Amino acid sequence: MTEAVTVVAPATSEPLLAKRASRRWILAATLISAIVALPVLSVLYLALFPEENIWPHLIDTTLPRYLTTTVKLMLGVGVLTLVIGLATAWTVTMCEFPGRRFFEWAMLLPFAVPAYVIAYVYTSLLDYAGPVQRALREVFGWQSASDYWFPEIRSLGGATLMLGLVLYPYVYLLARAAFLEQSPSLFAVSRSLGHSALSTFFRVVLPIARPAVAVGLSLVLMETLNDFGTVDFFAVQTLTAGLFDTWMNLGNLGGAAQIATTMLAFVVILVTLERYSRRKQKQYAARDNREPIQRFNLSRPRQAICLAVCLIPFTLGFVVPAATLGLYAWEYFGESWNPDFVENTLNSLLLSGTAALTTLAVGVVLAYSRRLHDTRGMQVLMRLSGLGYAMPGAVLAVGVIVPLAGFDNWLDGALRRTVGVSSGLLLSGTTFALVFAYTVRFLAVSAGSVESALQKVTPSMDMASRSLGDTPGRTLVRVHLPMLRGTLLTAALVVFVDCMKELPATLILRPFNFETLATYVYQFASDERLFHSALPSLIIVLAGIVPIILMSRSIANTRSIA
Amino acid sequence: MRLKIAAAAALILAALPFAASADGEVNIYSYRQAYLINPLLKAFEKETGIETNVVFAKNGLAERLEREGRNSPADVVMTVDISRINELVERDLVASVRSDTLEKNIPENLRHPDGKWFALTTRGRLIYTSKDRVKAGEITTYEELADPKWKGRICTRSGKHPYNIALISSMIAHHGLEETEQWLRGLKANLARKPQGADRDQIKAIAEGVCDVSIGNSYYYGNMLQDENERPIAEQVRLVFPNADGRGTHINISGIALTKSAPNRDNAIKLMEFLSSPEAQRIYAEANTEYPANPAVKPSGLVASWGEIHPDALPLQTIAAHRDEAVKLVDRVDFDG
């Protein structure tokens, strides 16, 4: 039995399931959101005290360029990730072609490649001294750069391509999960009513998948907005470039915080618009997915097209960078191998694992509290606690330092006054600060996916469980969590891979002598010694592959666990 | 269940012991890559038995130091670029150091008058020219970079990079803001391509024929000559010490400062003294082809073979003082656009 309903109805003003027992959840959610929102609030606070008013200078000079470049980059990356993400997700879900089972998980692999790494790999391949241009020169007998035209990789177009190639998996992941959850009979009904496969995709499949795709896309856009490594390397001047210039070159942290706040407003407006445009939709789907998907049986040429659709982004986003890194790592192995790698890898794994679980737990509490008590207030709390993702990591790091060091010094002062003992810095400069920063940064990822999955569970499930005497907590543990197993695992693993790649906040907040793989890569890459960073970069990529395979399995399994 | 595991894991991680300031340590916040300073720290540990702990980041460390306040574990800050170290002074985060050793080893113009920072190395901001396409002596000053004869022939990294900002600041100090603006507009008009990449990339661009002239720090050239893959590229350029016959070549520094809150103050000063000593200065000179700040130590043989550098005598604080003007000037002439 399968049922999937899209109810278009006025949003209920009554909180659906508000009961006294849910108060504790609301309290917990409020408290957690408040703590998680602290770093963002700190940045807003810093924005109140600029060294000088930066705006007249910016408006007169570079701001127009920063803004247009930022908008172009976001549009470009947004379109690119949507096209690649949706096309590949649809192809591997609905089409039968050779290699389909492989691509189901392989399409996720570019996600393991940090954007700053893919940027330098392609630069080394495509710049003048790289193998591509060298081969062209040999073939055509050109002598120098002035003899021919070659697309400049260090450009807005190049940055768009690089970010698109490693960020499309966000869209792919969420779109594919959404496609898998949809009932095949909906598709059949649409076809029997005379719609072509393509028209069905746009009129039925995509609208139902829209909340999930929107989550994926908004993650892509936020990541694009706050990227610094790639745009800096490519000399593409986005708002982030202006932010760092104001902070580092003018020593105006407050002014930089104002730019960060502006970027934040940008994101909030985007997300609000998307939500507003589907405010009257509510979707529930029974998760009775035993009916197998009927994949299209395609002619040979069409199968070849499917293969190409998947092969191109996979090759560009994963095979080329991984192979190039492998080659460099091999050539420079003697100089790059370092016994510290084992420790750095362990640091990365342990830290990312802890952060992923913490972020997931916080995400579940928030998303579930909102389900229990879906008021405007809870919505605002959810949005507020997800904002850390929309800020450049280095700015967020300062936002983390402010409350943690403030707390440490307050406690220390209080203890010195009362007991005469100094507690020093308890939280600042510890791995706790890092886990906290990761949680703040990636909460949007976990809370977003948990929330969109929870939304699809019909409230009658809760009602049944509650009327049988279960508390909200037991309902969560016995009903929702088992049903959402796939989503939870996916969310945790996405956060895990994101943490493995995280760089700017880690650099600033880490304890003494503490290296993760990402910080280790950075110290060479930032000193223009790219070859030496190939081996550790490759390890980051490889470490990301295992969780990605797990992730893919869990999604495929959503259809077999009823 | 998941919640409990996560909470437990978070607690365990938080409780992990970390950099507790015991005796026999010195804690470093470094704007320089850890692997660059490691050989020096190893030598220091070997000589004194004092352990060194490092956090390296390119930004945010000053904010961290400031917010950690009197409880900060950091003893010293190591930086490159005069403006960055000057900012620590302006924010009142560093302490004065009185040390006969340091004052003997580091000349007066390479340290803060009250001992709030000490330079450890200097580097010249040089001009590189193509051996094929530019005759020796065809360009000898920074000022000539704006000469229209170089139209479409010059490469540089972003005008906003601290090294270029310091160069522009020194131009402002010598010529005033208006004349420097003219100069920067002229230089911008001569660029072969939009400013991008780092200093080594500009030398590569000359080898590739993209441009004929570039600006870059001295040690990048030295490092390229020491790398067997990059040597053939570096060998295609000729190095020019700009303004050698006039006011001298613009130099910048890497330096060290003691924090106000330093919990291991004595060890920190020992480290500073050690880094200024001939032994440590030789490591700086050989490994990274920088100019030692201690005049008793000669530059490496490779660096010496380029000829002698005549540094601009302009006080470094003056360069730092013009930073904001320089940054805004770069925006005004749309140098990076």
Automatic annotation (TrEMBL), chain A:
Give the superkingdom in one word.
Answer: Bacteria
Pfam families (UniProt xref): BPD_transp_1
Q: Which InterPro entries match?
A: MetI-like, MetI-like_sf
Where would you find the membrane-spanning parts of this chain? 25-49, 69-90, 102-122, 156-179, 200-222, 253-273, 304-329, 349-368, 380-405, 425-444, 488-510, 530-550
Which UniProt keyword terms apply here? Cell membrane, Membrane, Transmembrane, Transmembrane helix, Transport
> Could you tell me the membrane topology recorded for this protein?
Multi-pass membrane protein
Question: Family per UniProt?
Answer: Belongs to the binding-protein-dependent transport system permease family.
Q: Which GO terms describe its cellular component?
A: plasma membrane
Q: Does the keyword Membrane apply?
A: yes
- Cellular localisation: Cell membrane
Q: Which PANTHER family match?
A: IRON UTILIZATION PROTEIN, MOLYBDENUM TRANSPORT SYSTEM PERMEASE PROTEIN MODB
GO:BP terms for this protein?
transmembrane transport
What is the protein's major site of localization? membrane
What's the name of the protein? Answer: Iron ABC transporter permease
Q: Which residues form the ABC transmembrane type-1 domain?
A: 67-275, 345-551
Organism source for this protein?
Marinobacter lutaoensis
UniProtKB/TrEMBL annotation, chain B:
* Coiled coil, from the record: none
GO MF terms on file?
metal ion binding
Q: What keywords does the record list, in alphabetical order?
A: Iron, Metal-binding, Signal
The residues that hold Fe cation are: Y219, Y220
Task: Return the InterPro entries for the record.
Answer: Ferric-bd (IPR026045)
Signal peptide interval: 1-22
- Source domain of life: Bacteria
Keyword Metal-binding belongs to the record: yes
Checking Gene3D superfamilies in the record gives: Periplasmic binding protein-like II
SUPFAM superfamilies referenced in this protein's UniProt entry, alphabetically: Periplasmic binding protein-like II (SSF53850)
Signal in keyword set:
yes
Q: Name one Pfam family in it.
A: SBP_bac_6
Q: Name one GO cellular component term.
A: outer membrane-bounded periplasmic space
Describe the family membership recorded for this protein in Swiss-Prot or TrEMBL. Answer: Belongs to the bacterial solute-binding protein 1 family.
What is the protein name stated in its UniProt record? Iron ABC transporter substrate-binding protein
